[in-house]
User: Which sequence fits this backbone?
C-alpha cells in the first residue's frame, strides 16, 4: 500500500500582516515579502521548503537576544 499523496500546502498566514523593519519578516507568519508574494503561484515543494524555514525562524525568534555591549 502506498502513502497518500500530500494535500495542498496551507498558507502560514495568521492575518497579522506587519513587516518588521529590522528583520524584514512578517510579524505574524515570519515570511519575507518575496515569500509572501510568491506563495499563491509557488509549487508545493517551494511552499514546504518555506514552511521548514519557518520552524527555524520561530526557534530563533523565541531565543533570547544576545547581550548588547554598547560598541
Assistant:
Amino acid at each position: 500500500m502506498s502513502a497518500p499523496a500530500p494535500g495542498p500546502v496551507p498558507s502560514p498566514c495568521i492575518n497579522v500582516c506587519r513587516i518588521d523593519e529590522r528583520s524584514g519578516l512578517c510579524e505574524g507568519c515570519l515570511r519575507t515579502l518575496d515569500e509572501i508574494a510568491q506563495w499563491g503561484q509557488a509549487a508545493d515543494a517551494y511552499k514546504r521548503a518555506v514552511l521548514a524555514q519557518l520552524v527555524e525562524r520561530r526557534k530563533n525568534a523565541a531565543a533570547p537576544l544576545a547581550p548588547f555591549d554598547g560598541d
Q: What stands out?
A: The helical segments are 33-39, 44-62. The chain has two helices and no strands. The two ends are 61 Å apart (CA to CA). Residues 44-62 form the longest helix (19 residues).
